[in-house]
Design goal:
110 residues
Length: 110
């Protein structure tokens, strides 16, 4: 009995899908054209809103972010304003410079 219910539900789903497909096929070219124009207008409106929001965000934050990672993290956290680049500790800078010199020596001066 359980199998018959399962088959009945599968048949019902298939009938619903067939009905949807039939209704789509019955749409004439004019309806399709109208739908395309509507969807394009919606897409253009969303793109314009995103662009406006991005420019507004950049206007509010006059300082340029220090890295793409900072921007990505701020976006993921949902922060509206990016913090200005913080001063990097001199010891970290010294380590970075040493690594850069070592890489340069290994790669350039083989």
């Amino acid at each position: 009995m359980n199998m018959t219910r399962r088959f009945q539900s599968i048949i019902m789903c298939m009938k619903i899908k067939m009905y949807r497909i039939a209704s789509i096929l019955q749409m004439n070219a004019e309806d399709i054209k109208k739908r395309q124009e509507y969807l394009k207008a919606r897409r253009d409106k969303l793109v314009a809103l995103k662009k406006e929001a991005r420019s507004h965000q950049l206007e509010m934050n006059k300082t340029r972010p220090s890295s793409a990672r900072t921007v990505a993290e701020a976006t993921l956290k949902g922060e509206q304003e990016l913090e200005a680049a913080q001063a990097i500790d001199p010891s970290i800078l010294q380590v970075r410079r040493a690594l850069a010199a070592r890489l340069k020596a290994e790669v350039v001066h083989k």
